[in-house]
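User: Can you fold this complex?
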Amino acid sequence: MAESTIFLVEDNPDDAFLVSRIIGKVCSETIIVARDGEEATNLLQGMAADGSYRQIRLVLLDLKLPKINGIEVLQAIRNSDPLRDLPVAILTSSDNDTDQERCRVLGVLDYIFKPLTADRLQRVLSLTKDI
Amino acid sequence: MDENSAERGSMGPLPYDLSGIALLYVEDEADARSMVGKMLAMNYPKLKLHTADNGAVGLELYREHEPDIVMTDINMPVMDGIRMSREIKSINSEARIIAVTAHSDTSYLLNAIEIGIHYYVLKPINYEELFSIIDKILEQIVLKRLVGEQNRRIIESERQLSGAQRIAHLGSWQLDLTDGSMNWSDELYRICGVEPESTPAYYLTFLDRFLPEDREVIKKAIRDAVDDRQPVSALFCRIRRPDGSVRILRVEAEVILDGEGVPATMIGTSHDVTELKQAEEKIRTLTDELERRVIQRTSLLQASVRELESFSYFVSHDLRAPVARLEGFCRALAEECTNCSSAYCSVYAERAERVVRQIKHIIDAFNNLTHYAKCKLVLGEVDLSAVVRNIAAGFEQSEPQRQVEFVIADALLIRGDRGLLQIAMEHLIGNAWKFTSKKEWARIEFGYSDEGGMRVYFVRDNGAGFNMRYLDKLFKPFQTIHSPGEYTWNGTAIGLATVHSIVLRHGGKIWAEGEVDKGATFYFTLEPNPEPGNFIEHPPPA
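Assistant: Here's the predicted assembly.
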């Protein structure tokens, strides 16, 4: 796996479809979808171990997730030595001020209210480096 | 004896008030009667003088006037002085009688002593002697009067004290610490349910009145008071009356020391406070009941607020996700339809997208509304007049072409949450601004009136008004009473519901009056000291 990748954490298949569609319109990145927080952390740990995490250009993270929520996933990323600097953008439909503040403190590129638009994704990607 | 020698000379007038004292002078010799009468009148100008020329007339006058002093000749026609004196003494044994006797009358003297005539003056009268006798008698009379007066006062004040004790249900007592004998006031007997003086007053009989469990308490309090020479203060103890009823007494007492500093006596009061205590108990019961109800209502309120909270959480979180999803699909559809053969596809997709945006507006409005209903108030002084002036200025700037006269009452300072009140006034003034838009000349007034101790604020306009039939819809969220297109409508129909909620949070009420095409007036009140409470985060302790 050598291509540049977008790591999407989204439990809802419709949302996953809509985001994938926008990604497909904006760039040619490969998409990895994790369907809950636990799957996301497991996958990311595996990628950290084999070094493939370096291919991740952007993590698009939903907050409301089964098992492990988005904030916890973000914390796990920021606490992991190799993953620490991964660019993360939050995708959410809730306007919870507390969540927004916690994400800001943990460090995110953007905090996006659903639905994601092509323009918004383009802007976020412009903040990341090409892989 | 001439008149000069009869003057009182250096003796001076008697230092007593002689008014009301009378003297009866009985003498059959007219000259003597006239002479002595004059001398008496001169020396005792205040003395009331009656004269008679024999014992029978004298007795008659005595019966009529009951004079304090009788001065009588002995040997007289019709009735002699001795017989008259006997009669007078039988009427009033304390009558003071001066016998004016000639040496020849000595045969009467023994009788006179027997009758109780204590004073004698020999004829011819030595005035100095006579006046000294009268002075002595007057002195006795005046002293007796004074003593009588003092006695009356003492009796009166005792009567008052007893009356006061009776009215106040306050009994008093005195305890002789050497032998345990006591003195109870009449009221103390009555408090104990017995006739005054009907039972012997001893310390032991006093203690017997109390309920066994309280008896030890009062015994100990009195013992401690004597040991420490400290008063007994506000001790509440129960007694049982012979009829079985129980009374509550408030007992207070003080120790009195003898000359050597040893406790000798104790004086105390026993106040029957049964009714007072019963009233206190009733108030306590009522207060408890009220508190129980408040707690019950608060928990009901909390329950409904929690329900609202979970509902608003559902709207703001759970509902947002599918709505955002729907918006995403609408946009995708619109994008994919740009090259579609059917012209309607993209139009419908765009319309659908617009509907979704409306839904999102409503969700936001709803969330704001629930936020106002449950957020914590930040209380401070708010100049409502200044708030309204700023809002008015904002509207005037936004549409400078409109002619709107604002009339705003000055310096309406209130206590409340500035942010929330600002929002409420924006809605009220905003409504007035909007619904006067079709008037050539518009007038919007913010004022107040004081009605029955309550300040009522109002916002009045001369705009479209409303039909009072729709009054109950006015303050409900998402209800409108104007048809679409009548007025520029970019709100979500929660303005007045928001105002209602904010006024409620400030402990006030809101109501409205209107007439179609004449205008509307919105009235509201505000509690001077609103509760800041946040129902959810700080529930009151159950």
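Chain A has one domain: 5-126. Chain A has a mean pLDDT of 92.
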